[in-house]
């Protein structure tokens, strides 16, 4: 086997490949374009396109595709061959600059939320040279943005890039006002990805898994996660072979896959990459999800990225580790030993605290989806209430600062509070609180509410923008002071922020009922469902902030809100239809068959003068819930046929009408399952899925 540094990134058109395939002067221009997010000069486009094509064809590629991330959240691609006819029977391989820079997929079926009238259905894709092209399965993938003809974003990536600019601008301005010189900041993200692996043959026997990604029925298995024996356990050979292939594939594609381990639930695993810039982390996470799914089939597995495939065991999330650093690679969320650096750290920390408190609704909605609603607040994932965990020491320091008191360190070393003597903050001062949705983990924040299938651009877009907003407010205020007065004023700004926003800080058990009550008292929002959360997208304060930082226009926000509300409704509706179908076509017939068998036994025994109390009891235990299921099913079928008028009403209908009824049907059906012999039950059960995989 080749060693990793010989092939890492070999399928990526990165600096090494560019250097080999491009004339030196153009190579340097390309690096400049990528590093500074500049536009590609038209006159070099043909040369770059040609070099890219030659490189890709040397890797066996025959096609290229503009790869983009529409509002469906899944990446989209349409493949074109590298050929141009030169006569009736001849072609040459060809790829021009204009084909690289701009594509026009017939994209009329992607959701636009009304941003694009059908008569001008074609959106266009524009190359994003800040993310590397790559070759996969004989195709050159060109990362692109997807817009309508008036330039409105129809995708997830464009707002992310705009938010990077917004945070860059705001942070550079504030830092320079405070006397720190940096020309640019880089936002870094490391998304930890959880997933389930189950046997492909079993998967194919369950319509619910195939269509919706989760089990809509299933009595609990005989063993769940009570023994905590799966977490970090030995990885068996078949899974090990799978993970090895996943790593190889990802490394070839330049993804820094680093850590793989078993997670809490049976058949659950995690893959963590080394962090990279947020733009590339976003694309790489899309690639990772694709590779996880694709490679699974080579090993007879199916990889489930759904947030809650199985009831009763943990679901899957994605921890979004987020930080930003200066152009000299100083991590701005790294508390230093030098008090001078600490004031910078504390200022940024204060801005984040203020942003998270003021825009709780946005952070909540950035992770909202039908799948994730099953996790949040379900004693395995953070609650649907946003709060920040800082660890004991940092909390104590902030309290001291807020009250203008001196801070007494654990070691009893007293530290005067003042500019020249802000306390040193030790790096490992944070312990881990798994129950917090937004936790400071030493040198980064870990946003833990993301669902496993989520495209990470939305939460990062929102995080970047709210922090940009707060840093801008700080900068606006500081500008009124002479440079030598600024440090002192910064301290009072931090104090004021802490006084006004400390309600968002919480270090206790986020899964507990007491916290929900306490959070309510503090006035923190609890937006339980996606239907509750999404309409906040267009709250006036949120509209104003996004427009101010040019991240989303009002039209784009309205469109997004509608697309996501509609999507939520459609996901739930499909689940409801799948449930009804499985009941009518599979489950009810099987139950009737077993009931008939029991009835025959009872009758036969009766004819011989023998009582059958046991059989009668089982028959009763099946038949009683069965009658409810049958009634509920009719109601569900009626509900499925009703279509509320607006997107908002549809989402609320899904949350208030469809889902609770489906939950009731499931509970009843699961209790029937427990009384039916395995041979009669028409589906692989939880024991099969979780232990035969
Ligand atoms: P764990 O949470 O399992 O203890 P780590 O703290 O080492 O693991 O890191 C978790 C994730 O955070 C990894 O993907 C890592 O690359 C990422 N990470 C570490 N430092 C940063 C940073 N400065 N910015 C963004 N992500 C980071
Ligand atoms: Mg983590």
TrEMBL record:
It is an enzyme of class 6 (ligase). One of its GO terms (molecular function) is glutamine synthetase activity. Residues 62-151 form the GS beta-grasp domain. Keywords: Ligase. Coiled coil: none annotated. SMART domains: Gln-synt_C (SM01230). The keyword Ligase applies. Its EC number is 6.3.1.2. Signal peptide: none annotated. GO terms for biological process: glutamine biosynthetic process. Residues 156-587 form the GS catalytic domain. SUPFAM superfamilies: Glutamine synthetase/guanido kinase. Belongs to the glutamine synthetase family. This is Glutamine synthetase. The gene is glnA_3.
